[in-house]
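Extended Data, panel c. Modelled sequence:
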Amino acid sequence: MDANTVSEDQGGELAFWLRLQWLPGVGPVAARALLARFGLPQGIFSASFDALREVVPAGVARAILQAPRPVANSQLELTLQWLSQPGNAVLTLADYAYPSLLLEIPDPPLLLYVRGRPELLSRPCVAVIGSRNASTQGMQNAAAFAEALSHAGLTIVSGLALGIDTHAHEGGLRGEGATVAVIGTGADLVYPRRNLDLAQRIAAQGCIVSEYALGLPAIPSNFPRRNRLISGLARGVLVIEAAAQSGSLITARLAGEYGRDVYALPGSIHATLAKGCHALIKQGAKLVDSVDDVLQELQWPAAAGTVAPAHPLLTAPAHPLLAALGHDPCDADTLAARSSLAMAEVMGELLALEMAGLVERLPGGLFQRCK
């Protein structure tokens, strides 16, 4: 339901959904069980204590029969005000537009707060995720893969975080498939604030979605939980870069549990941000090194005449330091020995290559070639 179509009856219906959402002791699983037994939320709140006890504990049944909590009433007022703004919508489990793939997960949200184009939630999607502290190469890969997949007509899902997520959304916006940002705050907030401009463009061209109540700030525990929606919305999850303990591995694990495909880009055995991807590949994730690999696994046709943008390195003249660097991180002393160049010359050339986007400086005095 959105601002332009919310009638008095629909506003009353939303009040029941919010009342259910704010019931103490009732999460998505219990709420779904109640809905399966009593139909719409109105049926739950008109049921008898004995009937409720067949589904939930006595304490929860008593809470259902009490007056609505003040927070539910205040959320109704706030939500109706938010719905009065163009482009905002709320989808309930009973809405026809609620994404069907989310209904396949064990605990789909009762409500989805949407900014932008809700129809994107039901289109074929691929999640593109990875580290917040991504390498330059990782961010370039995220943007290139996302753009090519979007040009092929797939919607890119990610989490609006810095690093890989940001560049996945940017790439998705450049293609016909657009992008969906699943956020861990209320849909009326943007976190991190550095992505405010990106969020505004996603709301205009794509879709921002949250299960969290309006006004809810960034709480650390919300982000691992929202990862289940990223996996749930997507047909497959592509991990670009991830450290061994990355939150992206939670999303990938959930994708596997939901029966979704998991893909991972390999990297150097010396790169910290490749450890998570390598672990996923060992566990059965599909190793991919091109967009075609993903499309073939999904049995999805490639966009005619569309290729991933080439990196400048592919057309740059051969450089002795690039040849000496290879594709593994390396320190300046080793490069000087390999190339037979003086240290001052090595550092000057590395700076020039870094400025050209061909080499990335890593922590610990290491340098890495951007492919």
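The chain is about 45% helix and 15% strand. This feature is highlighted in the accompanying rendering.
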